[in-house]
Amino acid sequence: MSDQVCCIRGDPASSMIGKRWFCGKHSQSATRERPHTWRISILLVVGLVVFVGIVYMLDLVLHPALTGAGLILAGVLLALVPAFIWLVFFYIQDRLEPEPKGYILGVFLLGALLASAVGIPLVDNIFHVSKWIYADTATTILGSILVVGFIQEFLKYAAVRYSVYPSAEFDEATDGVIYATAAGLGYATVLNIQFVIANGGVALGSSVIRMVVVALAQASFAGITGYFLGRARFEKKPWWWMPFGLSLAAVGNGLFNWLRGLIVQRGVSLTGASTNPWMGLVFASVVALFTLGLILWLIRRNIRTALAEK
Ligand SMILES: [Zn+2]
Q1: For residue 22, how far is its CA from the centre of ligand 1 (angstroms)?
Q2: N- to C-terminal Cα distance for the chain?
Q3: N- or C-end of the chain: fewer Cβ atoms within 10 A?
């Protein structure tokens, strides 16, 4: 047995779980349940909705007379808040269940970098998505999945797969979801900043709703990829495993984009200006909680099955 090495860092392995070898320390971390993750996720969604409510009310009551550079700056600052709130919640969770997570900020920044250097230029300047995607329903659905969905989800996947994934910092069953969510929020933050700048500043009250919707959606669908990444790291999986996971995330991403358009207004507008943005927020919150809940439940079930077979 001693000639086998642990799949996390190459130490001598002592046990096999899911057809992979682990040392004593990493067989524990790979099967660790994080009972706080679900509670923190619910609090996080509530926190984001409260944030939207506060900004919306302030905008309504105070009517801040912002124009030009001031308006753009205020929009950019607002765009940073969802990721900031997530980080705060993440570190609260980390205090309850301490675990070094040195790469969290790095993966977040990598997601942001890939969005601005690759994702947005591809969608806007190579595929010119805004010129054709709302031509008809079939085009909207297929374009949202096959072009926008796959580009976004692949880049968020890459931000995790080619950074923290091979390292010893990726050693828990929930790490795939946590790191992928960080990449998703990095991506969302850049999308939101780009939206503010492209419009030369935005109405703060209504655009803050859009920002949180984008953050929730990008984080949720990245979470699906993260689940598949996590299981690929700790178990032997067939060649189609990761392409399948990425496709699920891309389909979810595309369908969400299309359905949100239907829910928020008749006919979709690229600027996100909409007749009922609150319905979009409700939809995004439900999708985020459902997706995260399902993922965390699957992880827990998988851990228990692996432990039972050990
Ligand atoms: Zn090990």
Answers
A1: 5
A2: 15
A3: N
